[in-house]
From TrEMBL:
Residues passing through the membrane, by range: 22-49, 76-97, 109-133, 154-181
Top-level taxon of the source organism: Bacteria
Keyword Transmembrane helix assigned: yes
Organism: Herbinix luporum
Record InterPro entries: DUF624
Keywords linked to the UniProt accession: Membrane, Transmembrane, Transmembrane helix
Cleaved signal peptide residues: none
Protein name: Putative membrane protein
Length: 219
């Protein structure tokens, strides 16, 4: 019976992680409402989910808001740019769809072009905020890195897009799932994203205690 109520029991550990995912997802949703904070909030979500939920380092809200604060400026800039890009693409897709009836060939051609551009934008958006959470880069370097990685690792990119799409579908049919959906999608995608990041990580000089750096991501 003593082990049943032990906080190190696998059941309680799993329950603790589930609660962390729920709380951080709700915080993320509220922080995305002002629009301008979508970028830094998405960056912080990835950082906190990987560091705390996967690697069990630190506390979920402390790590979340630490990353949110440190990456606010760059995250906000990228988030605003992407917001405008997706709004424009949305209008373009509607326009192309409207052309398919009077002129199917022209409409279909435009639809294909805009769908291709939308795919590139979605692929880019999946990578750019996790990259920002992990690497110290300028905005220009972030754009280059996200564009390169999303195309260089296209199988993983397609899988992560599929994961995000599946999560959206689940939310549509089971709306309460929205309150844990952000962390769920991030956690699943991180299983692939972290494999990609390891290819670009510099070699460690030694354990964190020796280097003075918190190199939890190299463990």
């Amino acid at each position: 019976m003593g082990n049943l109520f032990n906080m190190d029991n696998p059941f309680f550990q799993a329950l603790s992680k589930l609660c962390d995912m729920l709380f951080i997802s709700i915080a993320y949703i509220f922080l995305c409402i002002p629009i301008i904070t979508i970028g830094p909030a998405t960056t912080a979500l990835y950082y906190a989910v990987v560091k705390v939920i996967r690697r069990e380092r630190g506390y979920i809200f402390r790590e979340f808001f630490k990353s949110f604060r440190l990456n606010f400026k760059k995250g906000a800039i990228i988030g605003i740019v992407l917001t405008f890009v997706f709004i424009i693409l949305g209008f373009d897709l509607v326009y192309a769809w409207g052309l398919t009836e009077p002129d199917s060939s022209k409409g279909s051609l435009l639809m294909g072009v805009f769908i291709g551009i939308t795919f590139l934008a979605v692929s880019f958006s999946i990578y750019v905020f996790p990259i920002l959470s992990r690497f110290d880069m300028t905005v220009k370097q972030l754009f280059k890195a996200a564009s390169y990685m999303s195309m260089r690792h296209i199988p993983y990119t397609l899988l992560m897009i599929l994961v995000n799409a599946l999560v959206v579908v689940i939310v549509i049919f089971v709306f309460p799932f929205i309150f844990i959906a952000p962390a769920t999608a991030t956690l699943i995608n991180s299983l692939m994203m972290e494999r990609i990041f390891k290819k670009y990580m510099p070699e460690s000089d030694g354990p964190g205690e020796e280097t003075g750096k918190d190199e939890w991501y190299l463990e």
